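Co-fold these.
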Amino acid sequence: MDALLDTAGLARLREALASAGYTAQGIRDHLGPAATDATARNDFRAALRITEDRPGRLDTLIRLFVCGQTEPLDRVAAALAPLPLESATALLEADGDGVRAAVELEPYGDWWVVADLSAGMRPGRPLPGDHVLGIGGASTTLAAATLRAPVGSALDLGTGCGVQALHLSTHADRVTATDVLPRALRFAATTAALNGLDWELLEGDLVAPVAGRRFDLVVSNPPFVAGPGFSDHVYRDSGRPGDAVCAELVAAAPGLLADGGHMQFLANWLHVAGESWEDRVGDWLAGTGLDAWVIQREVSDPVGYVNLWLSDASEDPRAQPALAAAWLDWFDAQKVDAVGFGLVTLRAGGNDDPTVRIEDLRQTVDGPLGPLVADWFDRQDLLRHGDLLATRFRVAPGLRLRQEAVQGAEGWEVERQLLALTGGLRWIEEVDPVALTLVGACDGTVTLADQVEVLALAHEVPPAVLSEVAIPLVSHLVERGILLPVT
Ligand SMILES: C[S@@+](CC[C@H](N)C(=O)[O-])C[C@H]1O[C@@H](n2cnc3c(N)ncnc32)[C@H](O)[C@@H]1O
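Predicted complex below.
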């Protein structure tokens, strides 16, 4: 797949960007943290003030590619040297006497990412159907949720500008990236070459380009937006009705994953009146043999959902009444009363009895999700294969007990006791006094069996009876990350 510039042009562009200091850190050092953070929120006033009086090469690049300004030809030529302007036509477009950016060229971590101009950089112009997204909130959400253990082979399905493939390059020996849009693959090829990386780039619909192949890790930020099956914007619309694209990805996973391999993707699912969303997603997984953790992070009502995705593509429901109405009418006809958004993580383990959890996780978590997902699977393995009674447990760091009490005849009477994780997944679990005693004694020195023995004596019940209560309780608290095994 050809990049936007030839090999020599890309090498010169890289040299230009690096020598000018057009990197994430270089820009931060130059503008200062406040002005840099403001640009991320589309407030360019400080950045424009700082760069206007001293037109150094970095200033010109910031004005051009970060602030979306039209700059004089001679300054742009100096900023991009040694890349001659005539070799940079894919990056720039004429505007009066000067030039402005024709693509997004964004420093991202230690990389550069090349994509189509964002909606903000093309005021008044709706996004074309084959728009190639730059780095957005969903891209960074998936990147932060991805498992980063070293792997042999990794696949980025629906790569767009190549942002997920960049991350995969840090821990996969071989990276394959696919997209249905040839334009997207040109951008991904440009991103790869500009960063000195080599990816296998394949064109085609969903898993078709990699049929018959297996990967250790598959990630995807697919066109998950749920609707009647529009194909207006390829980055958003899969052409499949409702949430069928996400169901299709789950169905493809067993044939795509190497043994022990993981697949992670962002997904939307319909909340249909009279049906639980958990059952709906559970049906996708039935019979796949995959371990799965599906977490719902947000829920939108239909009107809010349609307006969000119309405005994401710079479409206004007032200017597009027929489109908005068709979308909402379809939701009504399908009895959709909400749409859930979340993360699907699947693992191929060859299990007859896979672990499947489909649950709400709406709280803000502490730190990136990826390591928390890895820990969740590790804890599931302990629950499946370990001997809980023979295990010593300790409480998670920062665990707090919260009590709710009401004023009664004898003073404060505790009504509810809650164990709250202050870090990690930040779960909060209500517990009864016996459970609280058990958790309180988890200092990592004695096995669960010994704890049960002591507690049984104190409550004058046979240890076997208490074990029957303690094992599911401890299993649940281990799953939540409230109790941790001492190894
Ligand atoms: C939401 S964008 C994600 C881009 C990028 N991976 C990221 O994380 O920001 C979805 C991408 O999937 C691609 N895509 C859409 N439909 C597809 C299909 N049927 N098969 C493969 N890729 C598709 C789009 O062209 C687009 O690049």
